Amino acid sequence: MDKIKNLSLKKTVVLYMGISLFICFYLSAVIVKMAGNIQNHIWWKYADHEKYYEIAEGGNERYLRDVPRPHSYEMKRLDYHVSEVCDFLQTYSILLLSVAGNTIAVFLFYKHKLKNPIKELELASQKISQNNLDFHISYENRDEMGRLCLEYERMREQLAQNNQQLWKTIEEEKALRAAIAHDIRSPLSVLEGYQEMLSEYLPKKEIDMDQALDMVKESRKQIERMDLFVETMRKMSSLDARALVAEEITNKQLETDIRAELTVLEKKFEKKCGLNCMETEEKFAGDKEVILEVVENLLSNAFRYARIKVEITVFLTCWELQIRVKDDGVGFTAEKQKATELFYQQNMKDSLKHTGIGMYISRLYCEKHGGQLLIENEEQNGAVITAVFRRIA
After folding, report:
1. Rounded-to-integer distance, Cα 206 and Cα 262, Å
2. What digits encode the pLDDT tens for the residues 129-167?
3. pTM for the whole thing?
């Protein structure tokens, strides 16, 4: 039964029509035979029996099979009408039954092969038009309509994913606007306060030169903070438009680039970092600039929160690149996944020097590269972040 249900539409039509025509021809033969017998029975009542048997004894078998048809005026009215009906059935029964059989076959074909999937697709179209994507198309036959329903279900899933991504983008844009308002307003307020104080007290010489220089110095820090924020916004605006450029990456090349970055960070933060690159001759295809930017973000974050040491492990194959960064700090005190959200900052003091989007950009770059950013806390102490990149063509 399942095999018949999963037949293609063309084969199902041929099957239904073939069965219909077979039944119609069989019933037509039966009806023609019965009509002929009824007709012979009526005609026999008006035949010359003695002459019939005389001819039969003479060996005329054809006359035995075919009872002679009497004239219409010789038959009773009822017998005449019955005989005419038998003539009609013998002539047109096959035509009438064929039309009826094909009609039934078409009806059954529609009921079993088209009705349910069309109903499912109509209902799905109505729900999609109402922006309701919380449903599933349940038609499971593996025919053309089943494949169409499957493609419709895939389209629904893609629309749902797009909607989720759209809402996520909207929420991130809201957070971005709020961050812009906050991060621009704060340094501007500080600068405005310093300007008012200098304008009021400097002409009256009610403030000494050291205090004035301190205000100027603090003003410069706020300007640097605004410059950092503007540069961050520039990166954010160009992130989606950034196209990946595949190039060949070897283990030794990656180790050299990371060590160069470590030299700068170790001197800046006065902390040590151990680098462990698994030896391999395999080559990875990826966007080197993107990968190194993610590494820089992860290392900067790790050096800021590490107490003494940072460890980085690189595992490279031809299909995947994993970069694991571990620090010996306190780890993530809040929900770990929030660390990759926009403008997340575990320590509010960092807001003077860091905008809180490094981990967010790293996650987006990993996902754009076909991978992901994994975050966890070490059992004893410290945070572990693993950037996973998939090979690109």
Report:
1. 48
2. 888 888 888 887 888 888 888 888 888 888 888 888 888
3. 0.51
